[in-house]
Amino acid sequence: MKDKKECEIVQDLLFNYVDGILNPESKKLVEEHLTKCVDCQSRLKQINDDTKDKNVKEQIELDYLKRIRVKTKIKTITTAIVTIILICFIMFFNNFIKINTIINRAEKSLQSNNFYKETSQMLIDGETFITKEYYKDGKYKSVYQVYTDSGVETQMIEYTNTDTDERIYINETEKKAVIEKGELSKIKNNIKYVPFVINRNSLSKKIGTTFTYTIDVDTYDYGKEYYILRNKKENARWEIWIDKETGLPIKEINRNAIKTFYTGTNVVREVKDMVLEYNYEFNKVTDEDVDVPDLSGYTVETTDWNFEIPSK
Ligand SMILES: [Zn+2]
């Protein structure tokens, strides 16, 4: 009877014994009893096994929760990455469409057989260089002028056409004409050389352009829209404005490109943007604009650019 009573006490204490929270006296009592009682030993073993099982179960549950959390995290990160890539792709594609449209429209505009292009270049205060280029059915004329407060000075007029290897320069003030002949004349016809949009019609060039330039939209005179393209590599120091309708450039700005100094010093007097403006007109050029005038009354000089390759 006494033993049974002791067994009950010990078994009540066994949970706390396993958890290690018994005071030293009770612990001693339990341990002493355990050495001589097989029943309580097996009870202890059972408690230990149960505890182990419970721990294993808890660990499994914890692992499961952990895995769910990791999975959720991966899913969130993946979604974010995919979203970012998608946004970048949409932005890229959107810009690519704009570039593609610009180049295609420019190509179409430049196919015109009647084309006038005016380039203004503001270099120094009070001096603007104007190049007026006329093109009609294969014939070209370029007029180079300087505008100042005291008036317009025509420096040179140049005629050529696609059928000939001849180029005629006329100086009106000196009544002088220079006729240049040969291969060199042929390659110098550049009225249809339009910055940026020319020679960019291949797919690889269009993709490259999309990577290199940022595109903004703005409006100018009469609410006409234009794109502003800025070169990312040049820290947007250079920009070009392109007319949406024609795909042709209307303005080029090279920021802080012109620096002037006080005479004889390194001290900066002024920093200015270099600005080029372009104007185009279609179907306005007349035959009179491009026909070479009567050269009687001019001093005519001929230059031959056909080089002879020396034999030997
Ligand atoms: Zn016992």
Describe the structure.
The chain is of the alpha+beta class. The protein has a domain at about 115-195 and about 250-305. It contains six helices and twelve strands. It has helices spanning about 1-20, 25-35, 40-110, 185, 205-210, 285-290, and strands at about 115-125, 125-135, 140-150, 150-160, 165-170, 175-180, 215-220, 225-230, 240-245, 250-260, 270-280, 300-305. Strands 7-8-9-10-11-1-2-3-4-5-6-12 form a twelve-stranded mixed beta sheet. Helix 1 (about 1-20) packs across helix 2 (about 25-35), helix 1 (about 1-20) runs parallel beside helix 3 and helix 3 (about 40-110) crosses helix 5 (about 205-210). The chain starts with a helix and ends in an 8-residue tail after the last strand. The model has no long low-confidence stretch (mean pLDDT about 90).
What binds here, in terms of ligands, is:
zinc ion
Number of strands: 12
The helix/strand class is alpha+beta
Task: Report the uncertain regions.
Answer: none
Report the mean per-residue pLDDT as an integer: 88
Strand adjacency order, main sheet: 7-8-9-10-11-1-2-3-4-5-6-12
Specify the number of helices.
6
Q: Bin the strand percentage.
A: 35-45%
How do the helices and strands follow one another from N- to C-terminus? HHHEEEEEEHHEEEEEHE
Radius of gyration: 44 Å
**Helical amount:** 25-40%
The biggest beta sheet reads: 12 strands, mixed
Gap between N and C termini: 136 Å
3D shape: rod-shaped
